[in-house]
Design the sequence.
């Protein structure tokens, strides 16, 4: 058993406390320790083959945040939140990325990279196939969304507020960060920090259908 | 502040304890209470506009699990895990789904549905646009992956093991559950339960690049 597991109610209280913050308190900053833990939660996220085909851009420069605002439907979370993360997914996967992952695996586990030949064949057979290659960006975006889901839950458990943000112009973000030249594209964003006491959305009742509408037991 | 928040190390110890289980102990079942909490965590997941364009199919019938096995590359997690969830995303979004959501919102919050006219205009303008309509299934899949990420993290925190599974034949799953006729398509699966003591993957070192390779501060 996980030696540090929490109770069902501790989990659910945190998930019920969570909401998509509209108004962050710009004076409240996430501590370095807590932010480091949230970055670790991103790094520890699960992904297809473990390949983690993404990067997390943490935008700390206020001038860059200001530059993103008009490309984010002027949503103030972009400039007011303590931290702002842009999830960038890979748009290309080649043998290079696969071999780099296999070397990392071999090094981490003290294996010869040759012992991973079978895995290599499986990975290249899947990822370098024509069928897969046309959907690399979409596949990478899905993996980034796992990390987003994990981040939202992790933040809630640490008492950090968040707002997942799909309302931005990816092409403009890509241009600001020169992502296409690096083989990446922006897929989703997340603002994190602490809710303003004046955010009226904080006290609105959470809207959820009856469990039986979403969960079907077969 | 979230009154039930946990410590950074409690979160990270759980995330490090997590791994993609290859071999579940078929004799160990998740308790009803804990499973109810995990279903709640799915229902509480964040989504675009709050629309939750998905369903979670919990496959408890062993005969149905057995039927899925050949469509899941014979991965035994499908039959051995305590619980097996198929995430099905919507393939169509019409005014009906939007209005149903707005009625739920109005009912939940004791508002007149007319007071949500502005929101309705924004939602229909976005979701019913040609640009959006060609990508409904992809958008719904992304939202389902947020729920998957949240589920993986929630399960780890409750001491429940899991294995996210993309290795299945969606068209065959769709056929088994008659999903196309209902406007859904299977997008991803997750097996949950408890690791077998013989699963050699449990003790392998987690493979992760240096944080600086994934997280870039700008």
Sequence:
């Amino acid at each position: 058993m996980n030696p540090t597991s929490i109770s069902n109610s501790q989990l659910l209280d945190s998930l019920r406390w969570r909401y998509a913050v509209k108004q962050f308190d710009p004076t409240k900053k996430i501590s370095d320790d807590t932010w480091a833990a949230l970055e670790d939660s991103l790094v520890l996220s699960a992904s297809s083959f473990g390949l983690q085909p993404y990067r997390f851009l943490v935008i700390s420069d206020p001038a860059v945040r200001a530059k993103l605002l008009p490309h984010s439907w002027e949503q103030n979370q972009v400039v007011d939140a303590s931290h702002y993360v842009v999830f960038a997914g890979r748009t290309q996967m080649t043998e290079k990325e696969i071999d780099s992952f296999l070397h990392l695996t071999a090094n981490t586990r003290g294996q010869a990279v040759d012992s991973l030949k079978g895995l290599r064949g499986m990975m290249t057979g899947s990822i370098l196939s024509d069928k897969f290659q046309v959907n690399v960006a979409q596949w990478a975006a899905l993996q980034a969304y796992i990390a987003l889901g994990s981040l939202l839950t992790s933040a809630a458990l640490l008492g950090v507020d968040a707002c997942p943000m799909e309302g931005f112009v990816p092409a403009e973000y890509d241009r600001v960060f020169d992502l296409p030249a690096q083989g990446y594209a922006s897929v989703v964003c997340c603002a994190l920090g602490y809710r303003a006491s004046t955010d009226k959305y904080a006290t609105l009742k959470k809207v959820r259908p009856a469990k039986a509408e979403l969960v079907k037991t077969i």
User: Anything to note?
Assistant: The two ends of chain A are 28 Å apart (CA to CA). The mean pLDDT of chain A is 97.
